[in-house]
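Ticket 4471: requesting a sanity check on a complex prediction with G3I. Repro inputs:
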Amino acid sequence: MRTRRTFGRDLLAATALAGWKSRGGLFADAISIPSSEFRGAASLRAHAAARSLYVGSAVNTGLLEDDSGYRRTVVEQCNIISAENAMKWAALRPGPEQFDFALADRFVAFAEANGIAVRGHNLCWHEALPTWFTGTVNRDNAEQFLTAHIAAVAGRYQGKIRSWDVVNEAISLADNEPGGMRNGPWYKVLGPRFIDIAFRAARAADPRTLLTYNDYGIETDGAADTAKRAAVLALLARMKHDGVPLDAVGIQSHLSVDSGGQIGSGLNEFLKEAARLGLKVFITELDVNDDSIGEDNPKKRGEQVAALYRNYVGMLLGNRAVTDVLSWGISDGSSWLNAPGAKFRARHSGREETLSLIHI
Ligand code: G3I
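Returned structure tokens:
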């Protein structure tokens, strides 16, 4: 029987087998056609739909348009996608008064045409801001810029986005601000109220999309993650208490094989608290950094990465608040961890390694 819990088992089979085939060098291209084992009723998309779950990946819109193998994989495997970069400020805002929706429009139209749900990523973040931001946005006009952007973007796609990352990564304890707030560009000009402003604007623009707070570094029982998780939970509880429209929390889940053994009670407690606040929980950017395992040990690499995916996703899906699982990149070749100049992973042998949720 297909239950939420058996999704982890299917995932293990998919990642392990796919990893094996890739290591066997059966495919010539970095992004190739998935083997028949993962198509149709055996695809992740079908496994997810049978359990009323949303499963998919962030999508590189350049590859989506230029690479038919990549495009086919997205359609075959995903019933939800987010844009890795195409809906960020830097992509949408060529100038202070200008919007360029061309790419984002095509991305949303592609999803619609293929019966795939969309996560919007993101409406307010300290990164990926346009170069004109500094020097243009200040204390006097910041609220106007933020609300106008959200009204235009969330308004344009009203009814087409299952969930929006309204505010992304607002907590950074290292910055030593009250409440653990990150001392980022929006915080500097608006203080902590930028969060409430953004969520209220998003609700006004799209009454039914699931408004999400999204963050990383809250997964393990290590000291830093434990402290950050508490700060995030306090923020979410404060927002609920103040009547700020908030529907979900996104746990990014950029994992590493080294920290796999440290995931358990803290995150489970967080899931319970989130459910108590009435929030849905999404895994929004799942991947596993396998950098610490030697080049010469592909078998160990594949086994450990697949086991971590199985245990992690299986554990989270044991909590009914968790409904959506998205990886951050559908294949090793398209993962940000393997991008030229990437800082977080030293070894870049691409498809030779089992890194992505859907390794093909
Ligand atoms: O598109 C330009 C290109 O025109 C230019 O020539 C080139 C030169 O550097 O840059 C290109 O933009 C890059 C963009 O990715 C598209 O490839 C940016 O420099 C680069 O900073 C950007 O990185 C993205 C990063 O967010 C910052 O926006 C990564 O692809 C993306 O995977 C990463 O995703 C984030 C999530 O949004 C939030 N959570 C963490 C996650 C990983 O960092």
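Notes from triage: The pocket of G3I is lined by residues 84-85, 88, 127-128, 168, 216, 252, 285, 336 (CB under 6 Å). Leaving this open until the requester confirms.
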